[in-house]
From TrEMBL:
Organism: Micromonospora haikouensis
PANTHER family for the chain: ARABINOSE-BINDING PROTEIN-RELATED, SUGAR-BINDING LIPOPROTEIN
Record keyword 4Fe-4S present: no
Entries under SUPFAM superfamilies matching the protein: Periplasmic binding protein-like II (SSF53850)
Keyword vocabulary terms for this entry: Signal
Name of the protein described by the UniProt record: Sugar ABC transporter substrate-binding protein
Signal peptide: 1-21
InterPro entries: Bact_solute-bd_prot1, SBP
């Protein structure tokens, strides 16, 4: 299945698996008297309202338990919630294995709220095939490993193939630079009838998220670690380039539409309606547009991020409760190994996804190298049910574009940067230099306590 859908369904497996590994917290530390079993708790079980995914998760847990009768998985709904995490930890209610975003591990490791799994991971060779930059996300300054990724993404340029064709553009050759984007957006907007050439966010932290992606694409940074502290780095030539181009496209070219102050769902809905030419997005937006906004897989292409000096990536994974026992950690790693080294497992999940009309073949960066990556790629190719040609430009460039992750305290930083994005899109007289200077002061305050 596509890296997105596949990981959704498979990620659940990981949840279970990781749960096994992390499972070592609470009074379940010792094997129960009934058969010497290890029981671990893990979150990430899809809610019952998502009937197919909920049942698939439970079916996979049951299969693993049949093959490993000494391990029981207690799967629970819910994921990482920063608002309740500390209380659950203090009250002994935190699952043995729990879901995190890539922005969570550094803080949890620094606070010693997660278990070191380094010693146990050595017994599972496939862990060494996780890409080094992703292992680093789950590693501490001491070099020890505290968790594992199960899904990641990187952003590219999502575009409407029908609008490209109508505007005289080649749908198999999307814009490679931001200058190309500007030219293409003007041609698409010239189609009229409310057609928007290029869409942009500026609300609910999505504007700051997109600013970060576009800044990375031209070689800039949002924040840098300097002298033991983090400092804002976007008040730069690259930061001015991003905002000035958006300002010119909005007011000089009139290629971005009059409606602004857009947030996440707005651009997906506009793309689904056939009225949007392009916007920056990860591949997982495509099935959402199709399923929620009546789009068609054949209509959407994905190209690399323009200019390609970098792109924003992120993802999800699982970490282990600091109280996890060796037995629970080993059980969890056994589950993960069961999943990632089994060609039959990949094929089974892709087959299930295809049979349940879930997309298989949406491009997403591999989390593995070597044999594990090849195994998964082969299974994805076998069951692909979405137009691979449409994503060929993105796939061809994916390994050559550096993936950079979110800055510390990302959501707070994004909220500040929303202001600058909104201003240039709603005020033709916006002062880009002043907007960046004001944002820099606020972000430096946000980053002051980050080490």
């Amino acid at each position: 299945m596509t890296r997105t859908s596949l990981r959704s369904a498979l990620g659940l497996l990981l949840v279970a698996g990781v749960a096994l590994s992390a499972a070592g917290c609470g009074d379940d530390d010792e094997k129960s008297a009934s058969g010497g079993k290890v029981t671990i708790t893990v979150n990430g079980l899809p809610p019952a309202t998502e009937a197919a995914n909920h049942q698939r998760f439970l079916d996979n847990v049951a299969e693993f338990e049949r093959l490993n009768p000494d391990i029981d998985i207690d799967a629970r709904e819910g994921k990482m919630d920063p608002q309740t995490f500390s209380a659950k930890l203090a009250g002994g209610q935190l699952e043995d294995v729990f879901y995190v975003y890539f922005t969570d591990p550094a803080n949890l490791i620094a606070k010693r709220q997660v278990a070191d799994i380094s010693t146990y991971a050595k017994d599972f060779p496939v862990v060494d095939q996780v890409k080094p930059d992703l292992r680093k996300v789950f590693s501490g300054a001491d070099g020890k490993l505290y968790g594992l990724p199960y899904k990641n993404y990187s952003s590219g340029l999502l575009y409407s193939r029908p609008l490209f064709t109508r505007a005289g553009l080649d749908p198999d050759n999307p814009p490679k630079t931001w200058a190309d984007v500007r030219v293409a957006a003007k041609k698409i907007a010239a189609l009229g009838n409310g057609t928007v050439g290029y869409g942009e966010y500026s609300k609910s932290n999505t504007g700051g998220w997109h600013f970060t992606t576009e800044l990375y694409s031209v070689g800039g940074d949002v924040a840098v670690h300097d002298g033991g502290t983090w400092k804002a780095a976007f008040n730069s030539d690259q930061g001015r380039q991003v905002l000035n181009q958006l300002k010119e496209m909005r007011w000089t070219d009139d290629s971005m539409g009059a409606r602004q102050s857009l947030e996440w769902a707005d651009l997906l809905q506009l793309m689904g309606s056939g009225k949007l030419g392009m916007y920056v997005a990860p591949a997982d937006n495509i099935p959402t547009i199709v399923n929620q906004y009546k789009g068609n897989f054949a209509d959407y292409g994905l190209g690399p991020i323009p200019d390609g000096k970098g792109t924003l990536g992120g993802g999800e994974g699982y970490m282990f409760n600091a109280k996890a026992t060796p037995e629970k950690i080993r059980a969890g790693l056994k589950w993960l190994t069961f999943w990632f080294t089994s060609a039959e497992r990949f094929e089974a999940e892709n087959k299930w996804a295809a049979e349940n009309k879930l997309p298989v073949g949406i491009p997403e960066p591999q989390i593995f190298t070597g044999e594990a990556a090849a195994t998964q790629a082969a299974a994805d190719k076998k069951y692909a049910n979405v137009p691979q040609k449409n994503y060929a430009p993105f796939v061809a460039a994916m390994d050559s574009i550096p993936v950079k992750f979110e800055p510390p305290n990302a959501q707070q930083v994004y909220a500040v940067l929303d202001v600058a994005m909104l201003k240039v899109l709603t005020d033709r007289d916006a002062n880009v230099d002043q907007l960046l200077a004001d944002a820099e002061k606020q972000v430096n305050t946000i980053l002051a306590g980050v080490k």
